[in-house]
Structure formats: C-alpha cells, structure tokens
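Data deposition worksheet. Section B asks for the primary sequence of the deposited chain exactly as it was used as input, without tags or linkers unless they were present during the calculation. Section C holds the resulting structure in token form. Section D is free text for depositor observations; keep each observation to a single sentence. Incomplete worksheets are returned to the depositor.
Section A, Depositor: J.P.
Section B:
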Amino acid sequence: VQLQASGGGSVQPGDSLRLSCAASGRTFNKYTVGWFRQAMEKEREFVAAISWSGTGTYYADAVKGRFTISRDNAKEAVFLQMNSLKLEDAAVYYCAAVRDPETFTISPAAYVGWGQGTLVTVSS
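Section C:
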C-alpha cells in the first residue's frame, strides 16, 4: 500500500490547516495510520496515530491539544486537523500505515507505505 499526504501550505502562527491521507493499492481500513513529520536538519518524529476503528488515538506531547487525528473508513481517508500552528510545526508531514492489521503502535519501524509527504510552512 502507498499512502499520500496532501493539504500542506504556507500559514502564519496561530493559523489552522487540515491534512489528508489517502491510500492506493490496498484498503487501509484494518490498519492503524500515523502522521509523522520531518523538519529541516532534524529526524523524522511521530505526531499522531489513530487505530483502525478510529476509537484509539495517540499524540506527541508537542501537538497534544492542538492537533486532532480522525479517519473516515468509508472514504478510506485519514485527516490531521492542525490548529494554533507554531513556528516549530513547520515540516514535511507524512502519513503511513502500520504493517500488521489491527495493531496499534507508534514505532516508525512498524509503519509502511510512506509517500512523498506534504510541506507545512509556518512563518510570521
């Protein structure tokens, strides 16, 4: 399966953006999907994850209370609503799915289907 993130853009601090993630090649309705990001000269880091049913979510401390992950399995899409964006949120955002069905983890090593990512720029 290959996942593709979209919805990035250039915003100012305090603004909002909604990212979308869609899959091609295989349905991901049985899989946990996660969002990760990589800023310039930094390692990729976990942002948020949502279980296959949508009932379980987990967030990095840096985004807790500002970002919301959700999914619409009927449309096979996962979303990341980002509010109150900060300068430090600027990065390329990627979505990926856990390799094994009905498994919840935030370990990047367990994720597959990394697409090209979508760029989020935050500047004042």
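Section D:
The longest strand covers residues 17-24.
Residues 47 and 63 are 7 Å apart (CA to CA).
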